[in-house]
Design a protein that fits this description.
- There is one protein chain.
- By secondary structure, the protein is an alpha/beta fold.
- It folds into two domains: 3-171 and 329-374, D-Maltodextrin-Binding Protein, domain 2 (3-Layer(aba) Sandwich), CATH 3.40.190; 172-325 and 406-458, Periplasmic binding protein-like II (D-Maltodextrin-Binding Protein, domain 2).
- It contains 19 helices and 15 strands.
- The protein has a five-stranded mixed sheet with strand order 2-1-3-14-6.
- Strand 1 (62-67), helix 2 (73-83) and strand 2 form a beta-alpha-beta unit.
- The two termini are 30 Å apart.
- The model is unreliable at 1-48 (pLDDT under 50).
Length: 460
């Protein structure tokens, strides 16, 4: 669901949360704040360290294993070892997303074979942090690094009073649209969701083979749109979880999206397929609401659209100030049981904060989480040839700064997305009311959470 999973976005995620070792904890919020206190949870093996311990560990050297699926990881490892020749980092691509998570979970249960450092999507991070499988980085002074990152990104890794990873990339959402198609059919660039629906109707009426946008039914995408609408469907306080997929934000989203689903105004072409990219390139699909990783994906996978596309803020419900949400993103964490947690923490810090590491990351179309890089004119003012020379990053920067605060993910969000197709997905397939699907999804999530040792209630 982000630029690091280009080849895996169409794969159905299959993962379950292990409740073994469940400890009281609290969900972080999308605005960088945190909930109630975490007790127990992940700690490094051995004595607590400090920032000085990280410097000493780098000087002493040692061996680490790093699992990641990002395209730049191998180059970053080489650069790190050049800077710290006493450290040997073995890079392993254990599969993207859930493939890797399953292997890590199995290795932790077996007591051997887990990496020292691993990449986690923000939606998956709570599952491992709450289970006591990650090292709390505050003991190494890394909590003081908060000001280096955007609030939205930091809120995804600061869970309770602990810090269980450092942010790597983020996916603030924007509207990407084919200007050539919009001009041809006299479509307005929508500033409200009502205008967005009007454009969808107008385009499809003018050309029944064309659609304004595409959405085949993705739980992460739906959650992000509910987030942007002001929803707070997932509340976590220790082991207590409340789920309300009929709150005001959810209702706002369905009031718009039902018109597209029931009106059969969404492209029927499966997302992330060759045909889907072809239709993005030729204009049959004229717009996407997506994350900051989408411009790079369009340029590489829909080359025929070069020069036709533009970026704009997400539509809002009232036409007021811009509001965005995050769609995707990931972080790196130290896995419990590492024989050298100080060195592992130092490597995590280097990956997320070092200028050389971040340059490699951004050269591979990554959208950074660090304030310094986001403000750098070479990034902020860069023109994008695919987007006709537009300074797309300025639109995305504004989106990153307008992410709605207060968001929380479920401690079993990865599982939640695997069953989305069984409930809400049926509404997409049958062109029926999304609210009924959300009610069914909520019941399934409540029931599952209880089996995993959480105290789960349905919100009203």
């Amino acid at each position: 669901m982000n630029r690091t999973k280009k080849c895996a976005v169409a794969v159905v995620l299959v993962a379950a949360v292990s409740a073994a070792g469940l400890t009281a904890c609290s969900s972080g919020n999308g605005d960088g704040s945190s909930g109630g206190a975490a007790t127990g949870g992940a700690t490094a093996s051995g004595a607590a360290g400090s920032s000085a311990a990280l410097s000493a560990a780098l000087k002493k050297g040692g061996a680490l294993t790093y699992w990641s699926w990002t395209p730049e990881a191998k180059t970053q490892v080489a650069e790190f070892q050049k800077e710290y020749p006493n450290v040997t980092v073995t890079y392993v691509n254990a599969g993207s997303g859930t493939d890797q998570y399953t292997k890590i979970s199995n290795a932790i249960k077996a007591g051997s074979g887990a990496p020292d450092v691993a990449q986690f999507e923000y939606t998956a991070l709570p599952q491992f942090a709450y289970g006591g499988d990650l090292v709390d980085l505050t003991q190494y002074g890394l909590g003081q690094d908060k000001s280096l990152f955007t609030d939205g990104a930091w809120g995804n890794v600061a869970l309770g009073h602990g810090l269980y990873a450092l942010p790597q990339d983020q996916g603030p959402m924007a509207l990407f649209y084919n200007k050539k198609v919009f001009d041809k059919y006299g479509l307005t660039v929508p500033t409200t969701w009502s205008q967005f629906v009007d454009d969808a109707k107008k385009l499809h009426a003018a050309d029944p083979s064309s659609y304004l946008t595409s959405d085949g039914g993705d739980g992460l995408f739906a959650s992000s749109l509910i987030w942007q609408a002001g929803g707070h469907p997932y509340q976590v306080d220790g082991t207590s979880v409340t789920i309300n997929l009929q709150d005001q934000g959810a209702k706002k989203w369905t009031s718009v999206w039902n018109q597209l689903v029931e009106g059969q105004l969404l492209s029927p072409t499966p997302s992330w397929t060759d045909d889907w990219y072809k239709q993005l390139g030729n204009g049959q699909i004229a717009a996407l609401v997506s994350g900051a990783w989408m411009p790079g994906l369009l340029a590489s996978s829909a080359p025929d659209g070069k020069g036709d596309w533009q970026a704009a803020p997400m539509p809002t419900y009232d036409g007021g100030p811009a509001v965005s949400a995050n769609y995707g993103g990931s972080a790196t964490a130290v896995v419990k049981g590492s024989k050298n947690p100080e060195l592992a923490a130092a490597f995590v810090q280097w990956l997320s904060e070092n200028d050389a590491s971040l340059k490699i990351f951004m050269d591979n179309a990554g959208f950074p989480t660090t304030v310094k890089q986001l403000k750098d004119p070479s990034f902020a003012d860069a023109t994008n040839a695919y987007f006709g020379g537009q300074k797309v990053n300025q639109v995305l920067l504004a989106a990153a700064n307008s992410v709605a605060p207060g968001w929380s993910w479920l401690p079993y969000q990865e599982y939640a997305q695997t069953i989305f197709a069984d409930s809400v997905g049926q509404a997409y397939a049958n062109h029926t009311d999304l609210n009924a699907g959300l009610v069914a999804w909520q019941k399934a999530l409540v029931d599952y959470g209880k089996t995993q040792g959480f105290q789960v209630t349905s919100g009203q």
